[in-house]
Amino acid sequence: MPEQKPETRPDPNAVPVAVVSRLSLYLRELQHLIADGKETTSSSQLGRQLGFTDAQVRKDLAHFGHFGHPGIGYRCDELIGAIRKILGTDRQWRVGLVGIGNLGRALLGYRGFEQQGFRIVAAFDNDPVKVGTLVDGVEVCSLEQLGETINQQQIELGMIAVPAPQAQQVADVLVAAGIGGIVNFAPVTLRVSGQVCQVGVDLARELEQVTFVVSNRIAGS
Amino acid sequence: MPEQKPETRPDPNAVPVAVVSRLSLYLRELQHLIADGKETTSSSQLGRQLGFTDAQVRKDLAHFGHFGHPGIGYRCDELIGAIRKILGTDRQWRVGLVGIGNLGRALLGYRGFEQQGFRIVAAFDNDPVKVGTLVDGVEVCSLEQLGETINQQQIELGMIAVPAPQAQQVADVLVAAGIGGIVNFAPVTLRVSGQVCQVGVDLARELEQVTFVVSNRIAGS
User: Fold this and answer.
1) What is the pTM of this model?
2) Which of A150, A202, A213, B68 is the most exposed place for a label (fewest CB within 10 A)?
3) Are residues B111 and B82 in the same domain?
């Protein structure tokens, strides 16, 4: 039987961002199937649930290896393991969260992170009233301790949840402290040097996907 | 001079989701350019800032019409107007938010929504302590008032920010009340009938994009 795991690490620059983004969707759907008691699936079933064609699913996965079994399809747990390995979430990542307002508190309590392999191990805020308190079991440190704490606690990823005008400054401190990647929740585009992987979370983007469909449906009906 | 606006409404099913998603990115980048005092741009400049090729930018926009001017490129404000019209955000949308925990409060305070044309006009929670209070100027109603309020207040979109186990039930009530579209922030996949456009916001997805790049870089170096 052929080896089902990816044989070589993909070049992250050679794989379209959209493919990586769909891997996350496949992973969630597979986790959902497992929770429903399903052991195997097919590219057409996986695609149908998510609104993609089976060809799209096969093409996306073909970037990373061959994962199907003749006459069986995909084994859900095996494909989950393979995708997590590709995404790098087959281990836990240590995350530092900057900004403990409502959004920061929501992120600290968000169950979806731990489920997918992310653990917020440190939190930072510049409000002296918050510094030293515990939020969801995580101690809030001052922003001055950011660089030192990132090194001591071996934090690999930073999440930015400060107001937009402060986000760039926080990003600069994270980069200077040697962070590997940044996920920015502030509604502002950050300029970060090419050495650090930075992704912005734009909470209005999904709303725009919905209004695109709803308004064009109304106009077309 | 040719008319620069889209002449016909696109069929929302014929345009790939990824294209719509990139329209949001182009829109943000154009807004950023305007804020920086730039009046015109090109597909290569727009693409470079976002990590896409100029061919990708042109192909995406070509789904909806011709927006460039010979010798000038794109006029930023004109292209912003065209994209907002395509996305349906050239007007304000009335949004109802369900779940006033930390995430709900963060969403109520999130400046990015108003900037892009979304106004949360009603909030709902099943906690009697919260019902009747004002959060960011919006009165919290009980879940029992959901259907009635959606009709009275002409709410078109619902945002779900309740814990995962309650999300499906809330979606069912929103659908029954005749909502046009749903954006789900709970870390769970909803099953919604095809008549209602539903998009899930997966806060771990962007983290996975970052770990993909960071872990494959480490492995490749």
Assistant:
1) 0.79
2) B68
3) no
